[in-house]
Amino acid sequence: MPDKTTGKLKVFTVLGLAAGLAAGVSTCGGVTDSRESARDKATKATCDRYQTCGLIGTAANATYATYDSCTTVWEANWEQRWPVNTCMAINQGGLNVCLNAIGATDCTNFLDFLTTLGKCEDVDVCQAPPSNPDGG
Known about the structure:
The protein is mainly alpha-helical. The protein has helices at about 1-20, 35-50, 65-80, 90-105, 110-120, 120-125; strands at about 90, 125.
């Protein structure tokens, strides 16, 4: 039975990323972190949560074999969610909401996972470049 759970969790993770890309609400906040720093903070928070939930390691229900493999996957996920061409700056308030949501995600509730992804949308975390930086 744990093998089915692991498979479902992996499928849910992929589906969650796709669903999370479709949702989002803007928030306010200052700009302090670089995009790379925000990505790294979200990656660490995500893998720390997976580890806290017992989903990293050799157990049958583990999603990732090692913390490093989790980091590799989630760094790529955040990179895709917050692409450099549209995420020129970070909305600190939105990033904080995202990081807090990651840390509070219920380990066994897939809907909570989707809710967390919805709080980490590019529209919440990123600030796009001005449409006409020359002002004309």
